[in-house]
């Protein structure tokens, strides 16, 4: 028996046209450890926007019901050459009800249950998911469970990474994000010192109202002085930057070095011997990453991605993290949404121009059945 339902696809062609469209699809019977989930809610996260909107021009795009065609400028068109011509599903994560299962015991145990899942095609009325990656939600709603994987596991992953690398303090940029608010709570629970960096006073206030003790505003004239003071007080020489473009990582490394250098008793032309590390884990700013020669030679900039981190951390750690998320879904790991849209609603001009801005507290939730 096949099940049919609507699903969103994104296609970028070599001629520069990016097409988002909803089409009627058939979903196969699940086999083995697979389950078929009737999707009820899925968030639009920045990583979803990387293939949904990327840098395309949605002001002048051609809109029709259930379909939009926009133009992708260079260098982003050539930069995404490997996807040219491919009709890709979208929506990393979401939640819904299991309506059919494969014949493994793990899959069968989920029949009829509401679960959070990571199918990769969550903007769809149905999705095939791996039972191993499904989180039973019990009495929680699909809305409460829709964002229970990507951001919670990443925020927990940062703390694990810090521990694995011997740090007790972290610097975090764009810290009022959905993920940043979770990290703020986790660090308080775990006794990790956190330097939160935001760019608006209202977000300083927001994080402080959630218990943060150290919040720095990058728009303030004395930003570097505030940052140095925060790094000196916390001893944070490890940071996570989701912005990527511009000088954000550069300025944090610079402040770290200035703090370390101020503690040196003897001058060295090579700078301090303090290890300084920044992980870039997002691309909120698509411009080039700028690094300047202002922090000696003892520094490192690296990428950070959830899936390879989980593989490295191992099954035991991943299960521990997952259990913590499940037990604190509506507190530490709660997500909020600005509004809900159905699949067609996702593809209207007003919605796209709004959710692609990725503003604090303005995440959209897709409810594929309306
Ligand atoms: N590497 C991984 O494995 C992984 C996993 C999960 C998430 N992520 C990344 O984590 C980041 C946060 O995700 P989220 O769902 O928590 O985001 P979100 O709730 O949508 O919030 C986005 C935040 O970014 C800020 N922002 C947007 N554009 C910016 C820019 N150009 N410069 C500085 N700040 C900017 C916004 O602040 P304003 O209100 O001031 O605009 C807002 O606080 C994203 O970059 C995402 O891709 C990465």
User: Proportion of β residues?
Assistant: 25-35%
CATH topology of the largest domain: Quinone Oxidoreductase, Chain A, domain 1
Provide the CATH architecture of the largest domain.
Alpha-Beta Complex
| Parts with pLDDT < 50 across at least 5 consecutive residues | none
Q: Count the DSSP helices.
A: 13
The count of DSSP E runs of length 2 or more, i.e. the number of strands, is 20
CATH superfamily of the largest domain: Medium-chain alcohol dehydrogenases, catalytic domain
The top level CATH class name of the largest domain: Alpha Beta
Number of domains: 2
Bound molecules: NADP nicotinamide-adenine-dinucleotide phosphate
User: What is the typical, i.e. mean, pLDDT?
Assistant: 97
Structural class, by secondary structure, is alpha/beta
Q: Sheet with the most strands?
A: 7 strands, mixed
Helix content: 25-40%
Shape: globular
Span of the ends, CA to CA: 25 Å
Radius of gyration: 22 Å
Fill in the keyword field for this structure.
alpha/beta, Quinone Oxidoreductase, Chain A, domain 1, single chain, Rossmann fold, binds NADP nicotinamide-adenine-dinucleotide phosphate, seven-stranded mixed beta sheet
